[in-house]
Structures are given as structure tokens and as C-alpha cells.
């Protein structure tokens, strides 16, 4: 039953028109483009979706357009974490109406709340719909790292089916798997560690750079699935060179990714402030990174 969650699940990027408003047309274009690459599903409205910088109405619109474009074709996960519990629950109910396959949420943001408040927040989201729930653990941005004891308490609720784990120690993946039941899914978060994450027990991955190079992550997954570990290690190395390049320019990683997609004919606008658009002497450098991606795709085509 949970097989539909196991595989390569790109985090969907925020899609804006040239004025910086949500673009239905561009959402459809990006979702169809990614669908055509053979991915398993999409994670909509997370970090890559710039969720924290969008209004409730904008987030709902994005959830709706992706669902309309891909319903029944891909596994769709809605990230519904928002500043207040009230808004998170509203998004959760809306995602259920739209037919999403699962919900997910970061812990509360801004205030460093005690674990009891985080527990209550996730439980209220879980109890607001019939949908399965996936915890989004990303301590480097939220300041909270999921504890095994909270995970165990939350597992008493059958709706909790997994964790998307973006903490850097791959060991956390192994600990979360060990703390849960056999069916429990752990998604690898850090794209730089996809191969290691899978080997230590992750069932698949949800990642922010998959969307700009889905071919490479699908190939890495194929190498792992067929036990071809030397190629898996090598493609991870090539992926990491690319991610480091994506993060090396003046402008947010997402703005560089969006420039590359634009060169490919998928124009989804730029990023919303306070994220920085690509600027200064680095304008035009996305082309070189796109070339790195193309070369890597070609390198493994026959492997
Ligand atoms: C901190 C962060 O945003 N992590 C993402 C989600 O897990 C990753 O997918 C990164 O986007 C990726 O690993 C590039 O650093
Ligand atoms: C990276 C990721 O999973 C996200 O953008 O939410």
C-alpha cells in the first residue's frame, strides 16, 4: 500500500509569472515536464515551493493547479506547514478535498516552542483529515530536530506513515527506521546523500534539486536498486559537484535552478523576496551549470 511513496519525489518549485504572481499556466507546464521524466510523485508547497513566503490563497491555488494537472498520474504530497495551526489545518482540509495522497508539515516556525507544542501541532493536523501524514524534519532551518521519543509517541496515531528527514546525519534515517514499524517510510532529505541515505534504510527521497536533474536521481536509484554500487557512488559524486555549483552563485539556489529550467524552455519565473534572484556578475552563469547536468546525463545514459 505504501509503495506509491517509494521512489524519486521532486519538491515542486514555486511558479510565478513575470510580475511575481502565482501562474497556473507555468504550474501546469512544470508539473507535466516533471511527470514526463518518470518520477514517482511530487511534494508540493515545501521549502522549494517557498511556502513560508506565500499567502494561504496562493498556496491553495498551487495545490489545486498541480492536482488538476496530475491527479491519478502521480503520488501527490501536500506540505501544509504554516505559521499557525489554524492555517495549517485549513490547508490540510483543502488538500484532502483536492484528493492529495498525503499531508506533510514542518514543526512550528519562529518561536522556539517546547516539544509538547510541536507534538500538539502535528497531532492537530493529523486529526483534521483522513489523510496519511509525513513529518518534515529539517533542523537546519526550523531549529528543531525530531526526537525518537516524540516519534514513538506520534506513532500511536495510525495516520503517521513516515518522516521526510533532511537532517545531515544519515544515521538519523537508520534511528527513525529502527524506532518505527516495518511499513514506516523514511524519505532521504539531503540530495547530497541520496545514495548513503538509501543504503542505510531510506525508502526513497524527496529533494529540492531533483526537479532540475531528475534524470540523475532516477539513474542513481536504478543503480542502487540493481546493486551497482560503484556507479551509484560515482553518480552521487557528480550530483554533488552540481549541487555545490548551484549553491555557489549570487542568488538563492532556487533562483539558479529556475534559470536552468528557463534555458530548457520551462519558464517558472524567479524567486520571491527575501530569497535573492541571480544577480550581478553571476547572471549568465547558469548556462555552465546546465552544461554540467547535461554532461552527467549523457555520461550515464548507457550505464
Ligand atoms: C536544507 C534543505 O533545503 N534541504 C532540502 C530538503 O531536504 C534538500 O533537498 C536540499 O535542497 C538539497 O539537498 C540541496 O542542498
Ligand atoms: C527539499 C524539499 O523537500 C522541499 O523543498 O520541501
TrEMBL record:
BP GO annotations: N-acetylneuraminate catabolic process
A family per Pfam: DHDPS
Keyword Lyase included in the entry's annotation: yes
GO CC list: cytosol
Residues forming the catalytic site: 136 (proton donor/acceptor), 164 (schiff-base intermediate with substrate)
Gene3D superfamilies associated with the record: Aldolase class I
Positions of pyruvate binding: 206
Molecular function GO terms recorded: N-acetylneuraminate lyase activity
Keywords of the record: Lyase
Family assignment from sequence similarity: Belongs to the DapA family.
Family annotation (PANTHER family): N-ACETYLNEURAMINATE LYASE
Protein name (database record): N-acetylneuraminate lyase
Amino acid at each position: 500500500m505504501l509503495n506509491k511513496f517509494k521512489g524519486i519525489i521532486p519538491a515542486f518549485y514555486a511558479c510565478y509569472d513575470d510580475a511575481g504572481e502565482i501562474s497556473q499556466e507555468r504550474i501546469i507546464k512544470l508539473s507535466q515536464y516533471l511527470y514526463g521524466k518518470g518520477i514517482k510523485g511530487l511534494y508540493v508547497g515545501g521549502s522549494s515551493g517557498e511556502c513560508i513566503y506565500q499567502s494561504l490563497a496562493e498556496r491553495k491555488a498551487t495545490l489545486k493547479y498541480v492536482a488538476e494537472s496530475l491527479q491519478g498520474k502521480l503520488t501527490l504530497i501536500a506540505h501544509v506547514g504554516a505559521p499557525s495551526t489554524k492555517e495549517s489545518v485549513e490547508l490540510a482540509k483543502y488538500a484532502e478535498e483536492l484528493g492529495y495522497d498525503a499531508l506533510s508539515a514542518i514543526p512550528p516556525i519562529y518561536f522556539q516552542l517546547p516539544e509538547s507544542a510541536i507534538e500538539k501541532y502535528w497531532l492537530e493536523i493529523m486529526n483534521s483529515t483522513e489523510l496519511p501524514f509525513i513529518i518534515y524534519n529539517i533542523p537546519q532551518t526550523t531549529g528543531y530536530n525530531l526526537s525518537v521519543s516524540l516519534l514513538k509517541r506520534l506513532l500511536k496515531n495510525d495516520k503517521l506513515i513516515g518522516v521526510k528527514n533532511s537532517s545531515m546525519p544519515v544515521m538519523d534515517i537508520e534511528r527513525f527506521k529502527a524506532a518505527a514499524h516495518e511499513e514506516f517510510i523514511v524519505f532521504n532529505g539531503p540530495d547530497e546523500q541520496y545514495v548513503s541515505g538509501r543504503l542505510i534504510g531510506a525508502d526513497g527521497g524527496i529533494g529540492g534539486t531533483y526537479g532540475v536533474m531528475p534524470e540523475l536521481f532516477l539513474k542513481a536509484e536504478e543503480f542502487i536498486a540493481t546493486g551497482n554500487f560503484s556507479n551509484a557512488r560515482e553518480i552521487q559524486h557528480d550530483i554533488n559537484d552540481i549541487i555545490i555549483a548551484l549553491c555557489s552563485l549570487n542568488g538563492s539556489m532556487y533562483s539558479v535552478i529556475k534559470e536552468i529550467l528557463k534555458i530548457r524552455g520551462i519558464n517558472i519565473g524567479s524567486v520571491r523576496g527575501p530569497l535573492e534572484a541571480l544577480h550581478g556578475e553571476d547572471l549568465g552563469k547558469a548556462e555552465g551549470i546546465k552544461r554540467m547536468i547535461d554532461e552527467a546525463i549523457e555520461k550515464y545514459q548507457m550505464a
